[in-house]
Amino acid sequence: MLTKKYYKTKPEVEVTFEVARSDVATAEWVSDLTDWQPLAMKRAPKGGPFRLKVKLPKDQTVQFRYRFNGTDWENDEAADAYWPNEHGVDNSVVFTA
Fold first, then answer.
1. Considering the domain 2-95 in this protein, what is its CATH number?
2. pTM of the complete model
3. Residues 15-40: pLDDT tens digits?
4. Do 16 and 2 touch, CB atoms closer than 8 A?
5. Left (φ > 0), alpha (ψ -120 to 50) or beta: where does 38 sit?
6. Phi, psi (5° rounding) for residue 72?
7. In whole angstroms, what is the distance from residue 32 CA to residue 49 CA?
8. What is the pLDDT of residue 18?
């Protein structure tokens, strides 16, 4: 799941990425914005979902995926779109326009 918060006075959008996976120990957000370097997601208290807030530039298209336990990849079912990548699967896409 992802939610967007737009600012009237800033050229950015705060996007909260959230994944409810109780069966994994770690979750990371990996995107083209970070040259595919993972950012760790934090688990909410009491075994809640993993979350990460990222400020993205307005009017951008960002491709991303989630990685669990360092090996398992998954897309976000609430993504704005899905685009194929060079590995034969799709990336999740978020638009900040």
1. 2.60.40.10
2. 0.93
3. 999 999 999 999 999 999 999 999 99
4. yes
5. beta
6. -95, 130
7. 23
8. 97
